[in-house]
Write a structure and sequence with these properties.
Rossmann fold, GMP Synthetase, Chain A, domain 3, 18 helices, binds 5'-O-[(S)-ethoxy(hydroxy)phosphoryl]adenosine, ligase
Length: 572
């Protein structure tokens, strides 16, 4: 069978020859780019901002920020000053110290980034939270991490259960006329009175950087800790994969509440001194195309759901905007359908480059590079210097074309360093002390391209957002009508998957459209809008194992009209 390919892009790319570079690459060489190689110390905020502010890039725009109300830009020099002010502010109004967890829970705005990098300058570990999270989700994450401070807005403040979080000593509020007390500090008021000089806290390369909570198929969300050293891979992939160059204007559409929004929203582009666009507000096809036109975006990193929504908005719309500056387009987060890749070529005359990675990998891991042919539907090939393989359940490497566990050889630079508070969980990801097992299944073809097949576990990817079924089930069970709940991802042509819940009701409750809506609202308000089941189906009883575990596999088989497989562990 002939495989469909889209030929490599001609031109001068940072990664000119994949095979040659892969055969002989040493990560230690990348370390030379950073202060660590000279002083033995490091700080992400220095490498992303101050270093450029002290160079020829001083007056180059670092950040273009735009939402419906604000349209601002900051040079690297201005970012240095604003983040110094923020660092001084955090220091003066709290007892935060190196290694303490500082959370960010607010919509995108310049202040979010001032605070994030100010916190990094102090040596704090930054924990970003998606703004759609509600009280239950917030509590779990702040409690587990023993967060000491948070920055938020007056609108979101009521969702933070302050009285149940004894470790949370300080709340920085970004709003107008904030009423301060022993706990609440007015961020904007103090920002402009704080000094714009700050002595950076110099760190070791293994010191903490960010703590991203993410979902698995069981248990509460897990805190994935990354070290400062992640910058080595983030920097190098910004070069090879994003193909960033001095004149580029880069836009990553991800929210900083997710790993893509930190690692590739700001770290990777700023490590290379690239002008970066941040757009606030909600997704709309017009606003997105307009952003590309307004800023002259050259490199654009987004996600399959967004591309599918743009596709759905029609090709005529594309012609209303000048998108001629675009030179490189990339995607992450879910399988990128070949159809979408073909659409990209047709309407933008650009290949959409799929990239695969996850919160735990800390940076791009399997990618398509401009200088390499694309096989639509394939995630591409491993980043040079990283070994990826398909292994069986015992950790044996499988030959090409056999489906198995997608695994990465331990020790890549941006590998997660800890699951917060849970060393046993951390260890459970590794097999034979050699392989990190991703939870995805895939195969590799004879030419070394990797093809995604699905999740091995029950994790749901909806609109590119990772949702743990357990978290949703737990919330459902708190609803007075719900006796049992099982949650699965149901395939959806636009969102990849949507969340479907099977629910058995308590005595005295009857299925109804009203009850469905009430339960949906309950999850929306208690957890997050994106975690609320789009569909709810009532059942008298749910399939369970004898030990009482809901068998999601059976629910999925019901849903998809598939054989239910081995039912020997099911209760009668
Ligand atoms: C899925 C997002 C197919 C995968 C950066 C992975 C993908 C999970 C792709 C991680 C891709 C990510 N093709 N599936 N190119 N990229 N995934 O932690 O199942 O939010 O395990 O990280 O997203 O999601 P996470």
């Amino acid at each position: 069978m002939k495989v469909e390919t889209i030929a490599a892009v001609q031109g001068d790319h940072n990664l000119h020859n994949y095979e040659e570079v892969s055969s002989d690459f040493n990560w230690a060489d990348v370390e030379k780019e950073f202060s660590w190689s000279k002083t033995g110390k490091i700080n992400m905020a220095y490498e992303t901002i101050d270093r450029h502010a002290e160079s020829d890039r001083k007056n180059k725009v670092a950040l273009y920020y735009q939402d419906q109300k604000r349209h601002e830009s900051y040079t690297f020099y201005e970012m240095k000053r604003m983040t110094n002010r923020a660092a001084n502010l955090l220091k003066a109004h709290s007892d935060l110290e190196k290694g303490d967890r500082f959370f960010i829970f607010m919509p995108r705005s310049p202040e979010l980034y001032f605070a994030m990098f100010g916190a990094l300058k102090m040596g704090l570990i930054v924990g970003p939270l998606f703004e759609a999270f509600m009280e239950g989700a917030i509590y779990d994450r702040l409690d587990d991490s023993e967060a000491k401070a948070i920055i938020t807005t007056p609108e979101l403040l009521p969702r933070i259960p302050l009285d149940r979080l004894p470790n949370l000593k300080t709340v920085f509020l970004v709003g107008e006329n904030v009423e301060e007390d022993g706990k609440i500090v007015d961020f904007k008021k103090h920002l402009h009175t704080c000094s714009d000089r700050f002595e950076i806290e110099w760190l070791d390369k293994e010191d903490g950087l960010v703590l991203h909570y993410t979902s698995g198929s069981t248990g509460k969300p897990k805190g994935v800790l990354h070290a400062q050293y992640a910058m080595v891979q983030q920097y190098q992939t910004a070069k090879w994969v994003l193909d960033l160059k001095e004149q580029d204007v880069y836009w990553c559409t991800a929210d900083p509440g997710w790993v893509t929004g930190t690692a590739y929203g700001v770290f990777a582009p700023w490590l290379t001194g690239t002008t970066t666009v941040i757009i606030g507000g909600r997704f709309s096809p017009d606003a997105w195309y307009k952003a590309i036109e307004d800023f002259g975006v050259t490199v654009w990193y987004s996600a399959p759901t967004a591309f599918r929504m743009l596709m759905g908005a029609g090709d005529a719309l594309v012609k209303e905007y000048d998108l001629s500056t675009l030179r490189h387009v990339l995607s992450v987060g879910e399988p990128l359908n070949p159809e979408v890749v073909r659409w990209g070529v047709q309407v933008f005359n650009k290949r959409i480059h799929d990239t695969w990675w996850m919160t735990e990998t800390g940076a791009q891991t399997i990618c398509n590079y401009p200088s390499m042919d694309i096989r639509p539907g394939s995630m591409g090939k491993p980043v040079p210097g990283i070994k990826v393989a398909i292994v069986d359940d015992r950790g044996n490497e499988l030959p090409p074309n056999q489906m198995g566990n997608l695994a990465i050889e331990k020790g890549w630079p941006s590998m997660m360093r800890q699951i917060w508070n849970n060393p046993a969980k951390y260890e459970s990801y590794f097999m034979n002390d050699k392989w990190y097992v991703s939870g995805d299944s895939a195969y590799m073809d004879e030419d070394g391209y990797f093809w995604f097949q699905g999740r091995v576990d029950d994790v749901i990817m909806t609109s590119g957002e990772r949702v743990g079924p357990f978290e949703v089930e737990s919330k459902l069970l708190e609803h007075p009508a719900v006796a049992e709940a099982g949650v699965i991802g149901k395939p959806d042509p636009v969102r990849g998957e949507v969340i479907k819940a099977f629910v058995a009701l308590n005595e005295g409750f009857e299925p109804s459209e009203e009850l469905i809506q009430d339960i949906q609202q309950f999850v929306k308000k208690g957890l997050a809008a994106h975690a609320a089941p789009k569909e709810i189906e009532f059942k008298d009883k749910l399939p369970k194992t004898r030990s009482g575990k809901i068998m999601r596999r059976v629910l999925k088989a019901w849903e998809l009209d598939l054989p239910t497989g081995d039912l020997s562990t099911m209760e009668d």
